[in-house]
Design goal:
Layout (H helix, E strand, L loop, with lengths): L1 H10 L14 E3 L5 E3 L5 E5 L8 E4 L4 E2 L10 E2 L9 E5 L8 E4 L3 E6 L5 E6 L7 E5 L8 E4 L4 E2 L7 E2 L7 E5 L8 E4 L9 H19 L1
Antiparallel strand pairs: 1-2, 3-4, 5-6, 7-8, 9-10, 11-12, 13-14, 15-16
Length: 214
């Protein structure tokens, strides 16, 4: 009987000081009354009285309120800092917060409940001797892998097979994972013609011999 009486009294609003009888779209005022909540995009400017209802004010620029409420101030909007690799995928309005995401060249390290990003980092760069196995996205970092034997990558982008020197060339420098083989011209072989020289020596010897014997 006591429980039924309490419900009856609550319905007629005679027990309001405790605030537990206010409806789903009401809030308890400072003097214990049940006042109508303000709508999304607004907050309470003046609480209700016996003579008047709740007076609401719209959220100022840079603030929002995404639910019916009995609050005195709107929530501050999230700032998407481009210096931290973020941009506003969805701008802040009076009824909804901004949604940030990672800029091109960055990936998100911390996702928010609304599918946005609160912390981004630059994609990793692959070093010489490596290639890009998987390009970075807004949700994942770059994946690098080492070049296989016989391949090189000077800029950390892609691996290329070493140059093969031709038959008329010689290898001047061996290839590494970050540099190509260096080929150069093979040295030329010089041959000396001895036959004319020998003949000239015999001619000179014959002249000298003839002179001595005369």
């Amino acid at each position: 009987m006591g429980g039924r009486l309490l419900v009856f009294v609550c319905v007629f609003g005679t027990i309001v000081a405790s605030g537990f009888c206010c409806g789903a779209k009401e809030f308890t005022s400072s003097d214990g009354q049940c006042c109508p909540m303000c709508n999304e995009g607004t907050t309470v400017r003046r609480e209700c009285t016996i003579e008047s209802g709740t007076q609401c004010s719209p959220c100022a620029t840079g603030t929002f309120m995404n639910q019916p409420n009995g609050l005195r101030a709107c929530f501050p909007c999230v700032f998407c800092d481009t210096g931290q690799g973020l941009f506003a995928k969805q701008e802040c309005t009076a009824k909804s917060d901004a949604v940030c995401d990672a800029l091109r060249g960055y990936f998100c390290r911390s996702l928010t409940a609304n599918g946005g990003c609160s912390w981004a980092e630059k994609h990793s760069s692959c070093v010489p001797g490596q290639s890009i196995k998987e390009a970075g996205t807004t949700r994942s970092d770059t994946v690098c892998e080492d070049c296989e034997d016989g391949h090189f990558s000077p800029h950390g982008v892609s691996c290329t097979v070493w140059t093969k020197c031709s038959e008329t060339q010689m290898k001047k420098e061996e290839g590494t994972s970050s540099s190509d083989v260096v080929c150069g011209s093979a040295p030329r072989h010089h041959f000396t013609l001895l036959a004319p020289t020998i003949g000239w020596c015999f001619t000179v010897f014959g002249i000298l011999k003839k002179s001595l014997c005369s």
